[in-house]
Design goal:
The structure is a single chain. The protein is built from twelve helices and nine strands. By secondary structure, it is of the alpha/beta class. Helix 3 links the parallel strand 1 and strand 2. Helices cover 38% and strands 14% of the residues. The longest helix is centred in the first third of the chain and has 19 residues. It has a five-stranded parallel β-sheet. The protein binds phosphoric acid mono(formamide)ester (CP). The site of phosphoric acid mono(formamide)ester has 10 residues, from helix 3.
């Protein structure tokens, strides 16, 4: 995968996963995002870095945050943004994913932002474009099955950096439905690369994948133990749409055992931050009073997503201000 998404001299060619990305590149993205955050908040919001480039958003799965913030990020960099409406596209007539990609490439696409229910779809598209000699086109994974959600992982790390400054003294708890979560996988890769010494992953036995302990994290089935003295809590959505079978006995029992309530939050450090990638199931994995409470940084996560996605676009197009990563 590293050979597909990085050029031989270490520049970002595609963003398919955070696995294997060097720490220096992650920090380069954060520093660029710092400069774009400033662009996002001033009255003239556009910079011409992607002028003349075409970004195609291909969302084969629903999205509110990722799709919209990718669109805003591309627009702020002055790209032409094309949102393919999958429901009214020829996908509905049976056109294959790769045929769709070939046709959009023939319309002079420069970047594809892809969300797909099938794990590996963005990787397959990147390989296909390489086989076709379309090496100038970049693929950004906007979430594929249970595999990865790299820009969510990046914006989550950027949020932690904003509130906690350093990574190397932090205790972080990731809680909930890890089994069906592409976000958790990207978060674990990034937290490890950034040197977080204490990564705890907690959830019911039925919702934690077997391979977790091989990732160098502490696995627990006790929520209180997971939250004890942590700096950051990353709650995960109970992903009903990806569950085929019975993983929990009831939503009420799940909330009772695994929901983040004000009482449970007291086990973390007093200045701990609460994160959630969204969309939230209020009253299931998180109580509304916590989601809307003073320790919640859930909406800042969304805002930071624009600057982080601008940074990724700029690196992929090799137009980032300053030295190359
Ligand atoms: N976090 C996230 O991926 O949200 P959306 O599904 O709304 O894009």
């Amino acid at each position: 995968m590293t050979r597909l998404q990085l050029t031989p001299d270490g520049r970002l060619k595609h963003l398919l996963t955070l696995e294997g990305l060097p720490e220096t590149l992650l920090h380069r993205i954060f520093e660029l995002a710092d400069s774009f955050l400033e662009v996002s908040t001033r009255s003239v919001k556009k910079v011409p870095l992607l002028r003349g480039k075409s970004v195609f958003n291909l969302f084969f799965e629903n999205s509110t945050r990722t799709r919209t913030t990718f669109e805003i990020a591309a627009a702020r960099l002055s790209a032409d943004v094309i949102n393919l409406n999958i429901a009214t596209s020829s996908t509905a007539k049976g056109e294959s994913l790769l045929d769709t990609v070939d046709n959009l490439a023939a319309m002079m696409a420069d970047m594809f932002v892809i969300r797909h229910a099938a794990a590996g779809a963005p990787v397959r598209i990147a390989q296909h474009l390489a086989e076709r000699g379309q090496t100038h086109i970049s693929v950004l994974n906007a979430g594929d099955g249970r595999h990865a959600h790299p820009t969510q992982g990046l914006l989550d790390m950027y949020t932690i950096r904003h509130y906690k400054r350093e990574f190397t003294h932090l205790s972080v708890a990731i809680v909930g439905d890890v089994l069906h979560s592409r976000v958790a996988r990207s978060e674990i890769s990034a937290l490890s690369a950034l040197g977080v010494p204490d990564i705890r992953v907690a959830g019911p036995k039925t919702l934690l994948p077997k391979e977790l302990s091989a990732l160098g994290v502490t696995v627990t089935h006790d929520l209180d133990e997971a939250l004890d003295g942590v700096d950051v809590i990353m709650m995960l959505r109970l992903q009903n749409e990806r569950m085929h079978g019975s993983f929990i006995s009831s939503v009420a029992e799940y909330h009772e055992c695994w929901g983040l309530t004000p009482e449970r939050l007291k086990r973390a450090k007093p200045n701990a931050i609460v994160m959630h990638p969204g969309p939230m199931n209020r009253g299931v994995e998180i109580a509304s009073s916590v989601a809307d409470g003073p320790q919640s940084v859930i909406l800042p996560q969304v805002t930071f997503g624009i600057a982080v996605r601008m940074a990724v676009f700029a690196l992929l197009a090799d137009v980032a201000p300053g030295a190359a990563a």
